[in-house]
Amino acid sequence: MWLYLLKRVVLGVAVIAIAEAFLLLMIHAVPGDPAVALLGPQATPEFRAQLHQQMGLDKPLVVQIVTFFGGLLRGNLGFDVFSQRPVADVVFEQLPYTIELILVSILWAVAVAVPLGCYSAMRRNSMIDQAVGIVAVATIAIPSFVMAVSALLIFAVMLGWLPAIGAGTGFADRVIHLILPAFAMGIGWVGYISRLVRASMLEILGENHIRMARSFGLSEWRIVTGYALPLAILPTVTIIGVGIAWLLSSAVFIEVVFARPGIGALIVNAVRARNYPVVMGGALVTTFLIVTATTMSDLINAALDPRAREEL
């Protein structure tokens, strides 16, 4: 277990380093001068040179990469070009909004999808099973961006039931502002997880120990909840870690559509403004979250499933 964890840490560090180095290369490949985009075409060459020096763009690319990782080892991600605040403060100020959105989206999706998957498996090939399957495939196929715009138009603009933009202030207000974004992000996962649980349940319900439990006269509810479901839900635990990456990419669109604060909107605005230190810091934290989530899902799956534990 500890050797596996050490390997994942080394692999995670390598992934983060490669992602940040690739992003620096992409930044240099973007046509145009960041100083012109930030200061305007009327800026004097002196001001442009000063901004180049401030952003480190006057140095060779290799030096910039070494400087960035050297600062990273010291806990220094640089400074926001506009506010002159440390990038770490800017990023971690927005991060809680994205985390709460992802957690709420995952929690409600799992809470709805698991019972749906179980019920579909217990009523295999029935009309309800077929209807759930059609709806699940439809929710998987519709992009979260389209779902977000549709939910915004229907429930916020046309019906006026829920707020359209922002994140709210107090606890109750923040919960209300989370409903539409979390619905748009999680609805696709309801379909995906429900189909995954259904397939796992059908496989497990056909195994010998389930037949043995039925022969002992146990009720179907007892068999499903006590024996089949704990095994059927294991693939869901694994896929949630992978889904964090998908949800983080969806958060970019969701936060922009609903004008919510968050790390996704922060990166988008920083790219538009050529605020490259914030782009690098936001991408670093996002990559770290993805690596951490996938590693944690594997460890949790290993703790719950002895078969997976033997493979570590």
Structure at a glance:
Helix content is 80%, strand content 0%. The chain is an all-alpha fold and 312 residues long.
Number of strands: 0
Overall mean confidence score, pLDDT: 79
CATH superfamily of the domain at 95-311: MetI-like
If classified by CATH, what would the architecture of the domain at 95-311 be? Orthogonal Bundle
At CATH level 3, the topology of the domain at 95-311 is MetI-like fold
* Low-confidence blocks of residues: none
Helix-strand string: HHHHHHHHHHHHHH
Descriptive report:
This protein has 312 residues and is mostly helical. The chain has a domain of 217 residues: MetI-like (MetI-like fold), CATH 1.10.3720.10. 80% of the residues lie in helices and 0% in strands. The chain has 14 helices and no strands. α5 crosses α8 and α8 runs antiparallel to α11. The mean pLDDT is 79.
Topology:
Elements: H1 2-29, H2 34-39, H3 45-55, H4 61-73, H5 87-122, H6 127-141, H7 144-158, H8 171-205, H9 208-215, H10 220-232, H11 234-257, H12 263-272, H13 276-304, H14 306-311
Helix pairs in contact: 1-4, 1-13, 5-6, 5-8, 5-11, 5-13, 6-8, 7-8, 7-11, 8-10, 8-11, 11-12, 11-13, 12-13
